[in-house]
Specification:
InterPro entries: HD_phosphohydro. The chain is 62% helix and 0% strand. The chain is mainly alpha-helical and 124 residues long.
């Protein structure tokens, strides 16, 4: 028969787990849930860019340089993982694009503030 739905406590623990997806192994429904939460990483870049903008708004209390430094650290940690996704299906479909999107965001963040703390000029 069909699998019974997870109980409220399980779902709450899954939601809490989205704060640090890779803090422990995951399989089954939890793995699918976490992969679904991360699927924006492997989407079209314009979707990823909107996600990245939302992250920036969430951390608007950081100035541009501090945000870029901290966000780059998080993104590099993600890139250091053997896999971003827990399930083979998500890996096959989204892993390469997710890594590409993350690298593009890191590049954008590196251009956000030059060492002197000023944004890059328009090239004029």
């Amino acid at each position: 028969g069909p699998t019974p739905p997870p109980d409220r406590e399980a779902v709450c623990s899954w939601i809490a787990r989205t704060a640090d997806h890779h803090s422990a192994p995951a399989d089954g429904d939890l793995a699918l849930f976490l992969d679904a939460d991360l699927c924006v990483l492997g989407g079209a870049f314009h979707h990823y860019a909107r996600y990245a903008e939302a992250i920036r708004r969430e951390y608007c209390h950081f100035d541009a340089r501090e945000f870029a430094t901290k966000r780059t650290k998080v993104l590099n940690k993600m890139l250091s993982l053997e896999h971003l996704f827990f399930t083979e299906a998500f890996r096959e479909e989204l892993e390469a694009k997710a890594r590409s999107n993350i690298r593009l965001e890191i590049r954008h963040l590196s251009l956000l503030c030059l060492p002197d703390g000023h944004p890059p000029s328009g090239g004029d």
